[in-house]
Task: inverse folding
């Protein structure tokens, strides 16, 4: 395992962090406004949401591989043991959610009753496969799974919103109240 002796994350970790953050936040905004769009734009917005989710899933795999080979910098000296444990638990939960959200969306999309009639195209460039064993199910089973995976996807999103707010508040607390250079650790 490579050890990063500096008090900063590696450049690759920083790029992946901010790229994924931008894509995830953009995807959240997109799905929040989709119902306000004219009917002619809804399908494109939903397909873009799916494409961004798959892209985030791929970037997550890269980020996880990078993280496994590169230790993050040590926590700031003034950070207490409880805060360190909470930060570690929060990051683990982020990793779980960043995997589970797009995967549950992919499962949800694969169980869509019209999935066979409307192939999923990743950013309109090429067809992205749906999950075959779900596509092969009987329509009634697929409809039940479509509903279940949709509910799971929404619950995961709600948990993500809370965790994201806590993450931002904790970073601001460390930066502004504790005067620890947290932002510099994850900025270019």
Result:
């Amino acid at each position: 395992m490579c050890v990063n002796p500096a008090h900063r994350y590696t450049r690759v970790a920083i790029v992946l962090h901010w790229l994924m953050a931008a894509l995830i936040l953009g995807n959240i905004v997109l799905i929040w406004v989709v119902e306000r769009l004219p009917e002619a734009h809804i399908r494109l917005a939903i397909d873009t949401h799916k494409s961004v989710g798959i892209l985030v899933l791929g970037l997550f795999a890269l980020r996880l591989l990078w993280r496994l080979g590169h230790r993050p910098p040590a926590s700031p000296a003034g950070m207490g043991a409880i805060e360190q444990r909470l930060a570690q638990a929060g990051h683990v939960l982020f990793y779980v959610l960043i995997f589970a959200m797009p995967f549950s969306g992919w499962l949800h999309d694969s169980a869509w009753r019209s999935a066979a009639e409307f192939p999923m195209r990743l950013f309109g460039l090429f067809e992205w496969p749906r999950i075959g064993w779900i596509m092969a199910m009987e329509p009634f089973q697929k409809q039940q799974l479509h509903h279940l995976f949709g509910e799971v996807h929404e619950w995961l999103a709600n948990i993500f919103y809370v965790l994201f707010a806590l993450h931002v508040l904790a970073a601001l607390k460390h930066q502004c109240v504790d005067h620890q250079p947290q932002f510099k650790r994850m900025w270019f």
In short: The chain has six helices and four strands. Strands lie at 2-3, 70-71, 121-122, 126-127. Residues 6-74+81-185 form a domain with the Fumarate Reductase Cytochrome B subunit fold (CATH 1.20.950).
